[in-house]
Design a protein that fits this description.
The structure holds two protein chains of two kinds. By secondary structure, chain A is an alpha/beta fold. In chain A, 38% of the residues lie in helices and 20% in strands. Chain B is 35% helix and 18% strand. The longest helix of chain B is centred in the C-terminal third of the chain and has 16 residues. The chains are: A alpha/beta, B alpha/beta. At the A-B interface, helix 4 and helix 6 of A face helix 1, helix 3, helix 4 and helix 5 of B.
Chain lengths: 195, 161
C-alpha cells in the first residue's frame, strides 16, 4: 500500500520526529511505499489566505504550490498517517491549517446539487494517528480528545465507511521515563509494520 | 472594548522552534506578541468570532492560542508539580460566535471539537466561575439570506445582555 506520513513539529530533535521515523521504519519493513510531508521543514503556511478562501468554491481551489503537492500525495495514498504533538487538547495550528487548505472541495469532498458535502476520499483505506500528550489519559478523555476526533471522525466522514482507524497515543510524555519513550517507539514501528 | 483582527494583523499562527524551545521563558522575552498578552490579561469577557472549519477553530485562531496562551500568561507550573495552575483569573466569561457548514447533528457526530476546546480546555485556565456561551449558526452552506440576517440580529441581542 501507499502510505502518506504527515508530520508536524518545529524541532528536528523532538520526540514527534522520532515517532515519525519509527512509523517510517515500520511501514518500510511492512513493504509499503512511504511518502512524507514534514510541514515545518516545508515551511508550510497554515493560515488560509483571502485568495484561497475566495477560490474555495471555484474550479481550482488550490492556490499554494505546497497544497497542490499535498493534494496529489493524498489522492495517491491508501493510508494517511498523522504524527504530531497534542497541543491545547488538539491538532497544532500547523497541521490544522494543512487540513483546511489541502482537504478542499475536489480532494476530500464534493458539494452535491443541494450543496451537501459528499465524501471524496474513498481510496483511503486507513487513517492512523500517532500523537504525544502532555497529560495523562483521564484528563485527555475529560477534555474530549479533540485532535483524535478531527482525524478519526470529521476526516473519516469524507472517506469510505470501510476505512479503518488506528490510534497510537503516548499519554503523559511530560512525566514519562526514557524506557517508556523507547518502548512506545517500538510499539509504533511494530504497529506500522503489521498494517 | 478592545478589538483584534488576526488576519488584519497578519498574525503568524506558527509556533516557531525558538518559541517551542523557550516555552518556559518569561513572557516579556517575547515582545512580538506582547500586545496580545496584554489584551488577554486585561479582559473580563473574551469573545471569539470565527468560522468552524474541520470541526474546530481555524489554524489562525488555534495558533493564537498556542502562541499567546503561554506559560506565565495562561498557566504556570508550580515547582515539583505536574499540574498546570491557571493564571487568567480575570476572564469571567468566554463567548463564541461561530458558523458551521454542517448541521448540528453532524457536529454532534464529529464530537463537538471546537466547543469542547473552549468549554473544557481554554476555560480551565480562566476564573473558576468563568461562564461560556455558544452562539452558532449551523448549516450556513445551505442557509437563506433571511436566516443569516436573523443570526446577525441574534448576535447583537445576546451580546447586549
Amino acid at each position: 500500500m501507499r502510505a502518506l506520513l504527515v508530520v508536524s513539529h518545529p524541532s528536528a530533535t523532538s520526540y514527534t520526529k522520532a515517532m515519525a521515523a519509527a512509523a517510517r521504519r515500520g511501514l518500510e519493513r511492512g513493504g509499503h511505499d512511504v511518502e512524507e510531508l514534514d510541514l515545518y521543514t516545508m515551511r508550510f503556511q497554515p493560515a488560509m489566505t483571502k485568495a484561497e478562501r475566495d477560490a474555495y468554491h471555484g474550479v481550482d481551489p488550490m492556490v499554494d504550490p505546497a497544497v497542490q503537492l499535498s493534494a496529489a500525495l493524498v489522492k495517491r495514498a491508501d493510508v494517511l498517517v498523522f504524527v504530531y504533538p497534542t497541543w491545547w487538547g488538539g491538532l497544532p495550528a500547523m497541521l490544522k491549517g494543512w487540513l483546511e487548505k489541502t482537504m478542499v472541495p475536489g480532494v476530500a469532498f464534493v458539494f452535491d446539487a443541494e450543496n451537501k458535502v459528499r465524501p471524496g476520499l474513498q481510496t483511503v483505506q486507513r487513517i492512523v494517528g500517532i500523537s504525544s500528550y502532555g497529560s495523562k489519559r483521564p484528563y485527555v478523555m475529560l477534555v474530549n480528545d479533540n485532535g483524535r476526533r478531527v482525524l478519526l471522525r470529521a476526516l473519516r466522514l469524507n472517506t469510505g465507511w470501510r476505512t479503518r482507524r488506528t490510534w497510537l497515543p503516548f499519554y503523559g510524555i511530560d512525566t514519562s521515563t526514557e524506557d517508556e519513550r523507547i518502548a512506545f517507539l517500538d510499539r509504533v514501528e511494530r504497529a506500522m509494520a503489521a498494517l | 472594548m478592545r478589538f483584534t483582527d488576526l488576519y488584519e494583523d497578519e498574525f503568524d499562527p506558527v509556533l516557531s522552534e525558538a518559541e517551542h524551545v523557550n516555552h518556559l521563558a518569561d513572557p516579556s522575552t517575547k515582545p512580538a506578541i506582547a500586545r496580545y498578552v496584554d489584551d488577554l490579561r486585561w479582559c473580563r469577557s473574551l469573545v471569539l468570532i470565527y468560522p468552524t472549519w474541520w470541526a474546530g477553530q481555524p489554524a489562525m485562531l488555534k495558533g493564537w492560542i498556542e502562541r499567546v496562551w503561554m506559560h506565565g500568561v495562561a498557566w504556570e507550573l508550580a515547582a515539583g508539580s505536574a499540574r498546570l495552575r491557571p493564571l487568567l483569573r480575570n476572564v469571567r466569561s468566554i463567548t463564541v460566535v461561530t458558523t458551521h457548514g454542517s448541521s448540528k447533528w453532524v457536529n454532534a457526530l464529529e464530537g463537538e471539537v471546537g466547543k469542547r476546546t473552549v468549554t473544557r480546555v481554554l476555560r480551565s485556565m480562566c476564573s473558576r466561575r468563568c461562564r461560556t456561551r455558544w452562539i452558532a449558526l449551523y448549516g450556513i452552506d445551505r442557509s437563506t439570506e433571511a436566516q443569516r440576517q436573523r443570526f446577525l440580529a441574534r448576535i447583537t441581542r445576546r451580546l447586549g445582555r
